Amino acid sequence: MNAARLAALVLVFQLASAAPPAFWVWNRPDPLPEPALAELRENGSPLLYWQAAEVTLAHGWQDRLPAEMPAPAVVPVFRFEADPAMLFRPEGIAGLPSKIADPRPGWIQIDYDCPVSRLPDYAAALRRLKPALGSTRLSITALASWIGSPGFEELAGTVDEIVPMFYDLLPDRAEDVRAGHLVPMSGRDTLVWIRRWKTCPTRWRAGLPNFQRLTLFEADGSLVGHLPPFDPASLDGHAGLRLSAPPAGGTAIYQVTADSMPAHRPVHRNQLLVWRRPDEATMRQAIQAATEAGAAGVLWFAHPASAPAPWHSVSHLIHLTENPRPRLQLKVTDQGAIELFNAGPGDLPCRPGAKPWTLTLQGEPGDFVKPTPGHFADIAGSDGSLHRPRFSTTISLRFHQLPAGHSLVTGTHFSEASAEPDWQIDPRP
Q1: What is the tens place of the pLDDT at every residue in 25-42?
Q2: Whole-angstrom distance between the N-terminal and C-terminal Cα of the chain?
Q3: Do 129 and 238 fall into the same domain?
Q4: What pTM did the predictor assign?
Q5: How far is the C-alpha of 248 from the C-alpha of 252, rounded, in Å?
Q6: Same structural domain for residues 391 and 403?
Q7: I want to staple 315 with a disulfide (CB 3.0 to 4.6 A). Which of 33, 87, 258, 404 is the partner?
Q8: CA–CA distance from 58 to each of 55, 81, 249, 426 (Å)?
Q9: Pair (262, 346) in one structural domain
Q10: How many domains does the chain have?
Q11: Quick check: 206 and 287 in contact, CB under 8 A?
């Protein structure tokens, strides 16, 4: 057997033996809704790392866990403010054992963005903490840049798992922003950092992004900040924004043409608004690179029900290495509504900077009675008057996304046809 063939077989074995993908659930004090729980069950009930508390010097301990946890496998995550005082004060990491409810969980995770220079102090704080945890195993998040730093080996020896986060690795330089060259959310630097973690002496998972981001820059390229939760589908129809160039690599740049308030945040004329999401091909390469570097699996930030603007569904991410595809089905309900259902493992994603998806229906005169969009974005048009739809034989509906396992339904009495209409999606998925 040649070396290339052997390497391929080894990789197949590694992919098969790696732990299933897991998900962070962040800043969500409410239980997941039943459809989200059903999706988890249908995809093997992946492990959830659920934020249990936020701890800051100003506000102390703030609970985040729901009163009841309707999920089978949860690791509580405790987020500590990135202040060195958290390493020494009793209300910081040292006070964690008194906050963990009985029965003690099998695992907990600490999320603390420790400066590299304080890694030895962090290791000492965790070494003091471990005896008080008893049989509970300890996971910590990490900055990708910790690997190989002074004190990292000592830190790794105090915990049972490390989860480095492979996003937000490089800042945007002002001159690059002005030239229209933005740092991708996931690029070649992601793969470089993942491969460096091959030397990690402790079990580790790769933290990867499952969110979309909107960032505001001044006209000179200087950073203003990230905007709060937003609807990516709203960008292209916003009167105060103009797409500067065709989207590429999961990035779209918008020129602010008038003072306005997208994403509930004021923006001003001549500023730049940048939408970013992970690149799917790069994320598949990242999973492969993590597997080859010895990672125990992948941890996605975050579960779609807690990410402000999620990139993909649980199903799509579970099957990401298989290049999942949507499988669309259409039917007319008993109430005469048109229902478009995605029965496949892959999503039809939102595509800012590109035309929305269009469902075109073709029937006979008299088939279409009361065309109202329902869950669809709008009715794009027809070959007749929408005021007299019975004369129409073609009607188009636009929509922005359709995740795996979800459906879009028009208003009732849309159609009175005895058979389902002919239909197509443009562009073809």
Answers
A1: 999 999 999 999 999 999
A2: 39
A3: no
A4: 0.91
A5: 7
A6: yes
A7: 404
A8: 9, 10, 40, 52
A9: no
A10: 3
A11: yes
User: What is the span of the domain harbouring residue 43?
Assistant: 3-212+277-322
- pLDDT tens by residue, 378-392: 998 787 767 778 888
> Which CATH number characterizes residue 159's domain?
3.20.20.80
Structure token pair of residue 351: 């595509």
**Distance set, CA 266 to CA 22, 302, 395 (Å):** 36, 27, 37
Query: Which tokens in the block code for residue 16?
Result: 């098969």
pLDDT of res. 16: 38
Q: 3-class DSSP state for residue 372?
A: coil
Helix (H) or strand (E) run with residue 298 in it: strand 298-301
16-20, 46-50, 152-156, 413-417: least confident range: 16-20
The token duo for 164 is: 């480095």
Q: Alpha-carbon distance 348 to 404, whole Å?
A: 8
Angle among Cα 71, 74, 79 to the nearest 5 degrees reads 130
Q: How far apart are CA 74 and CA 49, in angstroms?
A: 6
Residue with tokens 């500590």: 80
pLDDT digits (tens, 9 = 90+) for 259-301: 998 878 899 999 999 999 999 999 999 999 999 999 999 999 9
- Are 138 and 50 found together in one domain? yes
Q: What gap in Å lies between CA 293 and CA 280, rounded to an integer?
A: 20
Number of neighbouring beta carbons within 10 Å of residue 72? 12
Q: Which two tokens stand for residue 293?
A: 């570097």
One domain for residues 208 and 250: no
- Omega before 302 within 30 of 0, i.e. cis: yes
Residues 40, 315: contact at Cβ < 8 Å? no
What is the average pLDDT value for the chain, to the nearest integer?
A: 91
The answer to whether residues 14 and 145 belong to one domain is yes
309 and 230 together in one domain: no
Dihedral sign, CA of 295, 301, 306, 311?
Answer: negative
Amino acid at 402: L
| 73 CB-near residues (< 8 Å, 6+ apart) | 45, 46, 47, 48
Q: Is the same domain home to 17 and 58?
A: yes
254 CB neighbour count, 10 Å cutoff: 24
- Last residue of some domain: 260, 288, 322? 322
Closest CA to 377 of 229, 231, 228: 231
The two structure tokens encoding residue 184: 């991708």
